[in-house]
Automatic annotation (TrEMBL):
Similarity comment text for this entry: Belongs to the ABC transporter superfamily.
Main location: membrane
Organism superkingdom: Bacteria
Protein keywords: Amino-acid transport, ATP-binding, Cell inner membrane, Cell membrane, Membrane, Nucleotide-binding, Translocase, Transport
Name recorded for this polypeptide: Cell division ATP-binding protein FtsE
Organism the protein comes from: Marinobacter adhaerens
Entries under PROSITE patterns matching the protein: ABC_TRANSPORTER_1, ABC_TRANSPORTER_2
Lineage: Bacteria, Pseudomonadati, Pseudomonadota, Gammaproteobacteria, Pseudomonadales
C-alpha cells in the first residue's frame, strides 16, 4: 500500500519555490491499477516521481507497506528502488545494447544476481512480453509497441511490486496502445503488481484502471473508483476529460440540448442492465414519449455500461423515473 500524508513538493527556480504538488493525502491499495489523469503541468509526473523518491518531497510523509520511505538512507533507497519499476513515454532504452541486454541491465546494476540468474530471468521476461525472437535486435530495429514491451520487461527484471507508468502509451498508435494496456492489465492480475499510471487520456483510465485521481494545478481535485468518476464526474476538469474521451464538444452538446423539447434525462446503465430492453416497457407503462439525443455503450475495465441522454414528453414522468430506478438505472435530470 502506498500512503501519502500531506505530501508536497516545490521546485527551487532562481531562488523561488515553485509549487508543483500542494499538500496531498492519498492511498493506493496493493494490487490495484491506479490512474492519475490531468493536463500538462498539473503535477502528475511530480506525484509519481515522489513514489520512488526520484524527487524528494518538501513536506509530508510517504509510506510504502507501512514503512516511511522519506527517512531512508542511501543503501535503503537503493534496495527500495528495486521494488519499484518504471516505464516511460519514450521508452528510455539504451540504443547501444540489444533487447536482451537492455532487460538484463537493472539486474547487472543491482550487483546481487549471478550470471545464470540474469540469463534465466531475461529469457523468462522475453517470453512473457512475446519478444523471444527479438532478443538480439537493437532498439532502433523495433516498433514503438515492441520498444515499450522491452521497457516493461526491463522494469520487471528485479521483480518489483510496484510499476510506475509515465504516459507509457502516449507515443503509440491506438491499436498498439490497446495491446500494451492489455499486457499491463494481465501483469497486474498475474503478479498482483500495483500499477500507478499517468495519462492525459480518460480512455486509458477507463480501459485499465480500478481507481483514478484527477489532478489540476498541483491538487488532486477528484479521486475514486473509475466507474464513479467516469460515469458521474463532479469537478469541471474531470467533466472535460470525460467529454474529451467521448469526442464530445461540451459547447455543441449544450446547443443540442437547448433545441430539444420536454424533460431531459441522462440515464446510466451498469453491468447487465446495459443490455435490458427497458425503454419500450417504461414508455408503455408511463405513456411517456422519448427521443434519443445521444448514446453510448462501452466498457469500464470488464464491466459494460451504457449512457443515454433522452428528451421525454407527455405521459407520467414520475412513473417513468420510478420504473427506471427500480431497474437499477441511474437517472440524472439534466433539465
Ligand atoms: N525539475 C523541475 N524544476 C522546476 N519546475 C519543475 C520541475 N519539474 C516540474 N516542474 C514544474 O512543476 C509543475 C508540475 O510539473 P509536472 O511535470 O509534475 O506536471 P505533469 O502533469 O506531469 O505535466 P506533463 O504532462 O507536461 O508532464 C509544472 O509547473 C512544471 O513546470
Amino acid at each position: 500500500m502506498i500512503v501519502f500524508n500531506q505530501v508536497q513538493k516545490s521546485y527551487q527556480v532562481g531562488g523561488r519555490a515553485i509549487p508543483a504538488l500542494l499538500p496531498t493525502d492519498m492511498t493506493i491499495e496493493t494490487g490495484e491499477v491506479f490512474g492519475i489523469v490531468g493536463h500538462s503541468g498539473a503535477g502528475k509526473s511530480t506525484l509519481v516521481r515522489l513514489i520512488n523518491l526520484l524527487e524528494p518531497p518538501t513536506g509530508g510523509d510517504i509510506l510504502i507497506d507501512d514503512e516511511n520511505i522519506t527517512g531512508y538512507s542511501a543503501a535503503e533507497l537503493r534496495a527500495f528502488r528495486r521494488k519499484v519499476g518504471m516505464i516511460f513515454q519514450h521508452f528510455n532504452l539504451l540504443s547501444s545494447k540489444t533487447v536482451a541486454d537492455n532487460i538484463a541491465f537493472p539486474m547487472k546494476l543491482a550487483g546481487i544476481y549471478s550470471k545464470a540468474e540474469i540469463r534465466e530471468r531475461v529469457q523468462e521476461l522475453l517470453a512473457r512480453v512475446s519478444l523471444t525472437d527479438q532478443a538480439d535486435k537493437y532498439p532502433s530495429q523495433l516498433s514503438g509497441g515492441q520498444k515499450q514491451r522491452v521497457g516493461i520487461a526491463r522494469a520487471l527484471a528485479c521483480r518489483p511490486t510496484i510499476l510506475l507508468c509515465d504516459e507509457a502509451t502516449s507515443a503509440l498508435d491506438p491499436q498498439t496502445t490497446q495491446s500494451v494496456l492489455r499486457l499491463l492489465g494481465d501483469l497486474n492480475k498475474e503478479l498482483g503488481l500495483t500499477i500507478v499510471l499517468i495519462t492525459h487520456e480518460m480512455d486509458v483510465v477507463r480501459r485499465v484502471c480500478d481507481r483514478v485521481a484527477v489532478m489540476d494545478g498541483g491538487r488532486v481535485v477528484e479521486m475514486g473508483a473509475v466507474s464513479d468518476v467516469f460515469l458521474h464526474p463532479q469537478h469541471p476538469t474531470t467533466r472535460d476529460f470525460v467529454f474529451e474521451s467521448e469526442s464530445v464538444d461540451s459547447q455543441e452538446r449544450q446547443q443540442d440540448l437547448q433545441k430539444a423539447s420536454g424533460r431531459i434525462l441522462r440515464l446510466t446503465f451498469r453491468g447487465e442492465s446495459t443490455y435490458q430492453p427497458l425503454l419500450g416497457s417504461v414508455a408503455r407503462a408511463s405513456g411517456v414519449d422519448f427521443s434519443i439525443l445521444s448514446g453510448r455503450i462501452d466498457h469500464i475495465k470488464d464491466t459494460p455500461y451504457g449512457q443515454l441522454t433522452l428528451s421525454l414528453v407527455g405521459g407520467d414522468l414520475e412513473v417513468a423515473m420510478e420504473a427506471l430506478e427500480a431497474a437499477d438505472v441511474h437517472v440524472e435530470v439534466v433539465r
